[in-house]
Amino acid sequence: MTRSSSADNFSDRRRVGLFRQFIRLAFFLSLLPAVVVAYGFYQDGRSIAEKVATSAVMPLSMLIFVVFGLGLFFIRNAKWSIGLGLVFLAMLTWIGTSPIVANWVMDDLESRVQSQLPTAKDQLDCVVVLGGGTGMTPDLRPQFASSGDRIGLAIRLYHAGAVKNIIVTGTAQLGTENEHTKDPSSQSKQLLVESNVDESVITMIQGINTTEEMRSLKARPELWQGKRCGLITSAFHLPRAMRLAEAQGLSLIPIAADYRSNRSRFNSRQLMPSGDALNTIELAIKEHLGMLLGR
């Protein structure tokens, strides 16, 4: 046998060996979600197990499994630094995008300020509703966004007789507006009016972020000075918003809306990676960065 044919045979054997390793790793990786699904079925029943299985085939979960598998492949081939790095990255991403971690991070933010929900007996003179709870449909109608409970809570408080006047905030950010775009404050006002809130009790103020909104409010002392005013925003945003209000000398009563933490019973689905959990953690990081920078 010639040296060339021996090299070819060695190369062929190596490729077959690598292929077999990939097959073994693929089988091993399929066991990871299978174990979680089986645990979900045993612990929480078929309905939760089906949701766990669905989460396991979502792009984020599949990416984590692939990276984890590649790490094991490199470790098996004695490339320890690359392999361990990939395994660590996969596990860190798994942990950091699991609902149980996201819920813990968000609950920490939401519990920092005690919300004081008013009633008709202790009616507020006004309530400030921070922008961010609305959006625009393709046919240019205002709609409730993911933080729409901010507006929804203001509507409920108004109709319950717990608040007399409503101040809505927000200006469209540069680069996002066009000739058809309405400011968040204008979107909020339209949704309030369509929800049978008297237009005469609604005031709009400007600001592209919370800092500017508080400055705009401070410049309108007739709206808040000597009055009992509340501040409605998402529960996770309330600590930073109250800090910015106090920095402007505004004394506002905190009213939390749009809670993101979940106090329901633990189930196995909370162990699986989730795009929603990733979004929740991003929101929490944004709030912490804002507080760190005083924004």
Features:
11 helices; 295 residues; five-stranded parallel sheet; two-stranded antiparallel ribbon; alpha/beta; Rossmann fold
Task: Describe this protein's structure.
With 295 residues, the protein is α/β, with parallel strands linked by helices. It has two domains: 3-96, no CATH class; 115-293, Rossmann fold (3-Layer(aba) Sandwich), CATH 3.40.50. It is 56% helix and 12% strand. The protein has helices at 3-44, 46-56, 59-76, 80-96, 99-110, 149-159, 184-194, 210-218, 221-224, 238-247, 275-293; strands spanning 124-129, 134-136, 142-144, 163-169, 202-205, 229-234, 253-257. It has a five-stranded parallel β-sheet with strand order 5-4-1-6-7, with helices on both faces. The chain has a two-stranded antiparallel sheet with strand order 2-3. Strand 4 (163-169), helix 7 and strand 5 (202-205) form a beta-alpha-beta unit. Helix 1 runs antiparallel to helix 2, helix 3 (59-76) packs antiparallel against helix 4 and helix 5 (99-110) runs parallel beside helix 11 (275-293). The longest helix is centred in the first third of the chain and has 42 residues, at 3-44. It is elongated and about 80 Å long. The model has no long low-confidence stretch (mean pLDDT 84).
